[in-house]
Amino acid sequence: MHPQPPLRTTHIAGGPRNALVYDRWGQYGRPVLLLHGLLFDRTMWWPVGAELARVCTVVAPDLPGHGDSPARDEAGLTDLARDLAGLVRRLDLHRAPIVVGHASAAPLAAAFAETYATHHLQTIEEEGGEVPEYFRFYAEPRHGLGVLTAYANWPVSAGHAAGRGTGPAFPHLADPAGFAAGLRARLR
Questions:
Q1: How far apart are CA 80 and CA 58, in angstroms?
Q2: I need a surface site. Which of 22, 52, 93, 182 has the fewest CB within 10 A?
Q3: By the 8 A CB rule, do 12 and 90 touch?
Q4: Which residue range(s) make up the domain with 91?
Q5: What is the CATH number of the domain that holds 146?
Q6: Could you name the domain of life of the organism this protein comes from (predicted)?
Q7: What is the number of other CB atoms lying within 10 angstroms of the CB of residue 55?
Q8: Does residue 78 form part of some domain?
Q9: Domain for residue 95, yes or no?
Q10: What's the predicted TM-score (pTM) here?
């Protein structure tokens, strides 16, 4: 008999001005911080979180104005990186996280890694495979372009954030088990 995988739980970190809603899998091990691209939300990471749940702590926050996190007038990279660091510190795991930034969240992941202890930084900009039909729901933008006003100072174009042009790739959805295996190899 196999033990049940850790369940996904939803939490809120921060205060009224900097609240972030996040999902968490697992209680132990090195944290893996999964950052969704603009116009998406934390649900895009659910297949990967489920794959990683047995071997580490996975955290997938909603960026401000996305999913269940309240909007902010401005979502600066430095301030948001600080809020994410507070979230990771609150987990009390005493290990530097692996930080994964999807597409337009790559600058945020890099800003986090420049200032805070990070075990590994991975950004998703490269081409991904075809997303299987049963994962396509997770690859759909959840918000209109209006949410981008708070992110005006980010070094991304609205077209890239919206998935137009070359658009964001979804290798974590084309092969969640393979993507998770790559992250598991970096946990040591």
A1: 18
A2: 182
A3: no
A4: 9-185
A5: 3.40.50.1820
A6: Bacteria
A7: 17
A8: yes
A9: yes
A10: 0.92
